[in-house]
Amino acid sequence: MNTEELEHIYKLSKDKLDETSLEIKRYSYNSIDWGDRLIGIRGARGVGKTTLLLQKILDSGEEREHSLYVSLDSVWLDAKDIYRLAEHFVQHGGQRLVLDEVHYVKDWQRVIKNINDGFKELKIAYTGSSMLKIKARQGDLSRRQMSYELQGLSFREFLKFERVGDFKVLSLADILSGHEDIARAIRRKVRILPLFEKYIRSGFYPFYREDESHYDARVLQAVNQTLDSDWPSVEDVTAETIRKARKMLRILAEMPPQTPKMKVLYEQLDTERQHGLKILYALERAGLLRLLPASKESLKNLTSPEKIYCDNTNLMYAIMPDADIGTARETFFMNQVGSVCSLTYPKHGDFLVDGKYLFEIGGKGKGFSQIKDIPNSYVVNDDTDVGIGNKIPLWLFGFMY
To answer: What is the pTM of this model?
Structure first.
């Protein structure tokens, strides 16, 4: 790596920082221990990992002048170049090195381990695809680093991005015990239902603020980059498998979230069961699908899930603009609640949360007929701003992170 290449990297870092705003920060910003020497942040493409780390550099006072951001999707950077870059950076007073999209580097885990071991005075933060796996044989980073998973915007965060209110995070216990008072207090400050309708269509990915008119196209572009670039950089996958994954995603987006007929799905893809399951779980790891199992053990054993959802409603509508509203309701609940709680498929109702609380999701007129007389059961109603008793408005579950 010559002087000209180094200067180019430093200039790119400065330009990227100049483009970044500190105006609004994500939910996880203050929960990350930025004092740790090695931080790893994973997440689906488009959820804001890069911005999060750039904001930390901007917000670090004097340390900003001793911080460097490097995007590793540049084809001319290899493992040796990255180590030499870190060495040069430290020799010139560097204190914090941010490595973006490490999954594009061969043996990325060994590279980070070597930098971390070689430069004790350096703080390292990196981002990577949600598909990344820590492999012990390449030097186990799990004992060296603090790991975080970044989700897309919650509905609560969306309201903050829309500048209509900065509301506190609610626990499941908060919602179950005090939803009526909480919803009334929020309703006094904002007309919640029109904003919820907007969020369902275009509010999950932070880039919605950049160009709302082409938002769906940006979402689909992120899907294609995940399948065509991110996945092959993490696993040995063929072009034919990627083609089948794209087709599977489209088929599943069009289906209601009923118990899937997996045999029919595999026939449509012209693939056998085990290969089909591997594709299914790869799409889940990529942040494109969410799988609802009958038990927590089911997902560990690579078995067919009870229900399959697109990861979020924005993705669902980008793929299928006239998607069923009932599917959208369940997808929202699965995405928001499933990001902080354990969800499984019950014998009655739609979701069992943390193995204890039963939820049935529906429209404004949804009642208890399907979960009548079951303890700890709740109806979740869409098109409702304030609930009553064990009937809770759907939008309020978007305040859980």
So the answer is: 0.92
